[in-house]
Amino acid sequence: MPAGIPGGAAVEPGWLVLEEADVSLTVIDRNTALVVVDLQKGIAAYPVVHPFADVVAGSRALCDVFRRRGLPVVLVNVTGRAPGRTEMGGGPASFPQGWSDLLPALGVTGDDILITKKTWGAFAGTGLEQQLKERGVTQVVITGVATSVGVEATARQAYELGFNVTLAIDAMTDRELEAHDYSISHVFPRLGETGTAAEIIALIERSA
């Protein structure tokens, strides 16, 4: 069987396979997009359980590789929230000027796809699905904040829309360690595959 493929599942032509058996990341499609969730100025000021700079650095490293390989980079910011009532509050939100600006460290280019959302997930009501499918994208790699909110919601939506999902678990964080750990250990394995930014980069670079 192909190395690294559980149960000997067939590998379709044009896929890249990681041979090491000690990581959960096995396959990156050739038409893969990077989706960076909510790395923006206002959210960068929130207290999180891992260094925010590390999340940005991992995301930027992935951005650089995707851009160099001509693969789509999607940079997502949030400017609102869903209007429904919740026990923790809800309704329209207002934010100070500049709160939703993407972090300069991401190195935004004219070729990046910029998506603004008003809910947790990057696909709901944004047209992102259409933009990716028009480009032939079959897989997304997701980074950003918060692990259990914007990242998880985006991963759930991507999975339900038929995309293969990969999550760069060292390029994301949360305000609560328990929520971060639960998403990684219990939710993400049901939605796709996980790996570090370095493992994902190595797998992409092997296509050369």
Overall tally of domains: 1
What is the averaged pLDDT score? 88
The CATH class = Alpha Beta
H-E order: EEEHHEEHEHEHEH
Given the structure, what is the number of helices? 6
Q: Gap between N and C termini, in Å?
A: 23 Å
CATH domain topology: Rossmann fold
List the strand order in the largest sheet. Answer: 5-4-3-6-7-8
Largest sheet: 6 strands, parallel
Question: In percent, how much strand structure appears in the residues?
Answer: 15-25%
Low-confidence regions: 1-22
- Helix/strand-derived category reads alpha/beta
Cα-based radius of gyration, to the nearest Å? 17 Å
- Summarize the amount of helix as a percent range: 25-40%
Number of strands: 8
* Architecture (CATH level 2) name: 3-Layer(aba) Sandwich
Shape: globular
What oligomeric state do these chains adopt? Answer: single chain
Task: For the structure shown, list the relevant keywords.
8 strands; alpha/beta; 208 residues; 21% strand; two-stranded antiparallel ribbon; Rossmann fold; six-stranded parallel β-sheet
